[in-house]
Amino acid sequence: MSLSVETLAVTIGDKRLLNEVSVAFASGHVTAILGPNGAGKSTLMACLAGLMQPTGGRVLLDDRPRGDFERRDLARRVGYLPQEADVHWNVDVATLVGLGRFPHRGRWGETPEDRDAVTRAMAATDVGGFAKRGVSTLSGGERARVLLARVLAGEPDWLLADEPLANLDPAHQLDGLDALRRVAAAGAGVIVVLHDLNHAARVADDVLLLRDGRVVAFGPPDQVLTRDLVAATYGVDTHVGVAPGGRRFLIPTERLA
Ligand code: ADP
Ligand code: MG
């Protein structure tokens, strides 16, 4: 399983949202995409998800252009949780998570595998306690967990999640990171947009830094989450330390001129 972009470009009017972006994502890895607001992170995710047509370059899935695949096949292979995901009708939580299985549904309806996948996804995101509640009665963070559960339930080969942890409390952020790690450990590729450098340090095998639609760096966290590259990407100075257990942590200390 492979997913890559080659010299990807997106131009709208005279604005270049992405420029010469070439990355080969690894299955079995969590790739964290980081960069300032407006860097092009969501644009890249939308191209990977097939919701936006690049104006240059291409997206390759198993070395074939994305457009060669049949829609239902793509839906099974690639799961996407958009940044502004929301639910516009009031279904109950279990039903909504079950919709994540839709690409797998055969003519005989729900199978035991479908039910198991939904149960696992709900456990991973700790939403079982409100399985029967209407989604519109949940808090923003609870709803974000349910939406993550829906995409997990689909068990895609490639899981794309755009800032899935943004509304979550610290405990559920850790749950979310663990869930993404488990997905990768099971062999899938996970591509996740994060804003928290420490979340990236914790979860990522590879980090992609974007700025102004271009790749600043791509590689393992120890090589990419450095004071210099973080400064080049975000324009902030950071204190980089090593936490007990050996994982690095980063504290932004000041904005650079
Ligand atoms: P990120 O997710 O990294 O914050 P986005 O990929 O959403 O950034 O957007 C990248 C840049 O493209 C931003 O400056 C945004 O304002 C701009 N942009 C997004 N969509 C459009 C559009 N339809 N027309 C013009 N500019 C856009
Ligand atoms: Mg975004």
Automatic annotation (TrEMBL):
Coiled coil: none annotated. CDD domains: ABC_Iron-Siderophores_B12_Hemin (cd03214). Residues 3-237 form the ABC transporter domain. The keyword Translocase applies. SUPFAM superfamilies: P-loop containing nucleoside triphosphate hydrolases. Keywords: ATP-binding, Nucleotide-binding, Translocase, Transport. GO terms for molecular function: ATP binding. Signal peptide: none annotated. The keyword ATP-binding applies. PANTHER family: HEMIN IMPORT ATP-BINDING PROTEIN HMUV. Part of the ABC transporter complex HmuTUV involved in hemin import. Responsible for energy coupling to the transport system. This is ABC transporter ATP-binding protein. It comes from Sphingomonas longa.
